[in-house]
UniProtKB/TrEMBL annotation:
Transmembrane spans: 23-41, 89-114, 120-140, 161-182, 208-229, 404-426, 438-459
Source organism, top-level taxon: Eukaryota
InterPro entries linked to this entry: ABA_GPCR_dom (IPR025969), Golgi_pH-regulator_cons_dom (IPR022535), GPHR/GTG (IPR015672)
Name this protein carries in UniProt: Abscisic acid G-protein coupled receptor-like domain-containing protein
GO cellular component: membrane
PANTHER family: G-PROTEIN COUPLED RECEPTOR 89-RELATED, GOLGI PH REGULATOR A-RELATED
Domain Abscisic acid G-protein coupled receptor-like: 330-509
Lineage of the organism: Eukaryota, Fungi, Dikarya, Ascomycota, Pezizomycotina
Organism whose genome encodes this protein: Endocarpon pusillum (strain Z07020 / HMAS-L-300199) (Lichen-forming fungus)
Main location, first listed in the record: membrane
Keywords, alphabetical: Membrane, Transmembrane, Transmembrane helix
Subcellular location: Membrane
Membrane topology according to the record: Multi-pass membrane protein
Domain Golgi pH regulator conserved: 200-265
Length: 531
């Protein structure tokens, strides 16, 4: 006899039997988490990150000397404020959604809260993160890059605005094409492509997963080498107040020169624009003999560009000196000595992790698919604890998941060393430092979102059927498998380690031992005074 009416409840899965009111009430903790994290990040974290660029440097860029220049400056300032507000909202929302998704994953592991609530919340959170990571944040980053190159979206000429928007469209289209092309790298790419049309969200999630895995491998490899280099192989000299004052004086002098050059440049631009039209004969003679004002204008533009690069690098060096001074003062305390000890132990773990991954790659190459890579002791202990909590868990699969999670720990624990190494490389490519500095909040939120989504996709294939049904249903059944992801992560990790190590060695050979003492820009200040 077929069940009717209420008897049909026996056929309904357990996580679908809860009442709507109870499900809505269960959403409140996740909503409160989102609001709390978003407000804290918006009010405390974003101003700290966005102020990493020296405000004095920005203010000294130019003080308008004409009504036209003042109107243009006001329009540019208004455009920058709007862009900054949108970026702050995107940054706060991405970090908050990443925190909520982490909370949901923990609830999924512990099987806490209402299953229907977890399913709705995971679907809404993942979809929102997908929109931010694929649409909003790339658009804002491309917009910032175009603005830094000097193109104006509003307030300038019509041709300049059209060119800026055309570059924005071309840049975003290129990004989307590259993002979709990433799917070719996935295992069983043909199957993934056939499913893409049926479920666009799943296809995008798989591409975000492989992108996040590659990015975390690159960053954790860079961080591991940076921690080893900073803590085990270098000995920085003692930073005195005289060193900081000398660097500050050089920065102030450079900013004063930059302000004067910018003012003179604007005066010349106004003079050239207000000059009467010349005849054909005058233009021909001017092209042969050259125009004094135009020659001075081009010279000033080169000088201003050089002073901008120099001032940004001096500000960067000053920040490093102040950070090193604070670290040295902290090292004289008990807490500082304990922190240094932890840093040394962590650096030794980074050495072990690099060595173990290299051995795993060699053995995997020699023994092909028959080789199962062992895990390091830290990963193994955590996996054993997880299996103790849930005996049905696959310890080998969870070891891979925990190994990926530890890459985020490596990046976070060696954040200061990462900044030091990044600033070292940025001296050879100062434009990269300026572009990255303007997008630091967006980059951090992008990394956090990719990291959490990649963790969720790996977790989807490791949960027991009685526990992980909700997350599997919310994220779909993809082709990103843990074993393949481990091989992919190891390859990118070792590649990052090799490139970072070679880069540090080359920079050390080119600049010499003084590269870590921030003395290399002092002679440039003297050169700047002669511009």
């Amino acid at each position: 006899m077929l069940p009717i009416n209420g008897d049909c409840d026996d056929c309904v899965p357990t996580y679908l039997k809860s009442s709507p009111s109870k499900a809505i009430f269960s959403i409140l903790p996740f909503a409160l988490t989102f609001l709390f994290v978003a407000v804290i990040v918006h009010q405390k974290v974003y101003p700290l990150l966005s102020s990493s660029t020296n405000d004095k440097l920005n203010r000294s860029a130019f003080s308008p000397t004409s009504p036209h220049g003042e109107a243009s400056a006001q329009s540019a300032a208004y455009e920058k404020r709007i862009s900054k507000r949108i970026s702050s909202v995107a940054f706060s929302a991405t970090i908050a959604l990443s925190a909520v998704l982490t909370e949901l994953l923990l609830c999924e592991i512990s099987n806490s809260f209402n299953p229907t609530t977890r399913k709705i919340s995971i679907s809404a959170t993942v979809t929102s993160l997908l929109c931010l990571l694929v649409l909003v944040i790339p658009l804002l980053e491309i917009y910032s890059l175009i603005s830094r190159l000097g193109w104006r979206f509003t307030g300038g000429t019509r041709a300049s605005a059209l060119a800026a928007w055309a570059l924005e469209v071309i840049g975003f289209t290129t990004f989307l094409a590259g993002f979709w092309f990433v799917g070719v790298l996935l295992p069983d790419a043909g199957e993934s492509q056939s499913k893409a049309g049926a479920n666009l969200v799943t296809a995008c999630l798989e591409r975000l997963g492989i992108t996040g895995t590659s990015m975390m491998a690159l960053l954790s490899g860079f961080a591991a080498v940076s921690a080893i280099w900073q803590n085990l192989t270098t000995r920085a000299r003692i930073v005195s107040e005289a060193d900081i004052n000398r660097k500050q004086a050089g920065l102030d002098a450079t900013l004063d020169m930059l302000s004067a050059k910018k003012a003179r440049l604007k005066q010349l631009e106004l003079k050239v624009s207000d000059a009467p039209a010349r005849g054909f004969f005058q233009k021909a003679m001017g092209s042969i003999r050259g125009n004094a004002d135009m020659q001075e204008l081009r010279t000033l533009e080169l000088e201003v560009s050089g002073l901008k690069t120099m001032s940004a690098s001096l500000h960067n060096s000053l920040s490093i000196l102040r950070s090193r001074k604070a670290s040295q003062l902290r090292s004289s305390t008990a807490i500082g000595r304990a922190t240094n000890l932890v840093s040394y132990v962590f650096s030794c773990y980074c050495v072990y992790r690099i060595g173990s991954i290299m051995i795993n790659i060699i053995r995997r190459t020699l023994y092909s698919n028959s080789y199962s890579a062992p895990t390091d002791p830290v990963t193994n202990v955590i996996a054993l604890f997880a299996r103790h909590v849930y005996p049905s868990l696959n310890q080998a699969a969870w070891a891979r998941q925990i190994s990926f999670l530890l890459s985020g720990v490596i990046l976070t624990a060696s954040f200061n060393a990462v900044l030091q190494t990044f600033h070292l490389f940025a001296r050879f490519l100062p434009g990269v430092l300026q572009a990255a500095r303007s997008n630091i909040p967006l980059l951090i939120s992008q990394i956090a979102g990719l990291y959490v989504i990649s963790s969720a996709l790996l977790l989807r294939n490791m949960m027991p059927r009685e526990v992980g049904g909700v997350i599997s249903e919310a994220l779909g059944t993809g082709v990103l498998q843990p074993a393949w992801t481990e091989k992919w992560f190891d390859g990118w990790f070792i590649g990052s380690v090799v490139v970072t190590g070679v880069g540090i060695w080359l920079s050390h050979k080119v600049k010499g031992d003084g590269v870590w003492d921030d003395d290399t820009w002092d002679t440039d200040v003297e050169m700047g005074k002669r511009l």
